[in-house]
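Title: Prediction job returns without error message
Component: structure pipeline
Severity: low
Priority: P3
Assignee: unassigned

Description:
Job completed but the reporter wants confirmation the result is attached to the right record. Sequence as submitted:
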Amino acid sequence: MNYNIINIDVKNSMHKNRQFCVNFKDALVCHKDPKEVTYPEVQHVQVIHEGKEVMMGLDKQLQKVGQRIIYKSESIIEEPPADFIEDDVFLLYDNAGENYIHFFFDMFGRCYYFEELLKNNPNLKLGVLEDFYQEEGRNNFAKQWLDLYLEDKNIELVIFKKDKKYKVKNLILSNLFYWFPEQYGHEPILEMIKKVADKIPPIEVKSNGAYISRQDTIKRGWYHKKELKNEKEFIERVKNDLGYDILEMMDYTMKEKIQLTKSYKNIIQQSSASNINILFAAPESNSIILSNPKMGPWLNGKCEEFSHTSRSNLLLIDNVGEIVFPPNFKTEDQNNYPWTLTNIDGLIDTLHQINNNSIWES
């Protein structure tokens, strides 16, 4: 068979069984709409090698346990005509990469492998599917982040477009490096993220703090159903009582997100995927999390790791709200129920103490 497995040595790793890549010679890459791919889980790409559909590096469940099953089946697929790429290409892909926090950990985290492979193959190119390299749209944060990552590196990108098929001389597919929110194994990724964010300086802001509103996601169509029902009331109190700015992060580029997060002394936000922005916070600044009753218990520990990496202070405010169950409400995701703040007056009082530093007084 014209493929070989490349084991990657990750120091102090607890996932050595799954930390490897596979190099396929003359592999066909077809970037597709997920609806066109007959697969148990969402996929944006089909890879065919020697007439057989590849599972390795694509099937997430197999990746998690490190099973080295190369092909989906032994059935032979007739390969369509394709453009030939006379290069070695590392395909950066994870089927959860459209989700903000999973992009950083599950997808971008695979760049650890890419950088290791570059040491022996400096001409290795980085391949990205067109869906994950867009100027506009829901996934544009991925392109913006990758551009920041690559701006000081001499690395050539290969963009796989949907309207073309590609035959790649040597295609490298990576097995899972880390799956968020696993308890262990993400330390190298935290450092990689911080290294990129460190390129961006802070900007001048007039307010002492800001609240990251989730109204932007509601305006654009909420992917989950965990909206804070009385958020607008809380926003008015934050503006009027604290004089803080209100930020809707989906209105900003990735660079601007980093700049803003670095620039405020106090940043308030709910438990959400955007908590990864704590990694962008300035040392000694205060990241204040309004802990969602469902999401907080498992995400708060990650927030502590983010703040440790950025050397910022973390204040987790628990027991500030309760889950709301509207009549006939249904959701398949048990972590994503709407919720409400139960004591806004008391919360604002606590935030005042944080703002004037009296909360630290004994």
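Comment from assignee: result matches the submitted record. The longest helix spans residues 296-310.
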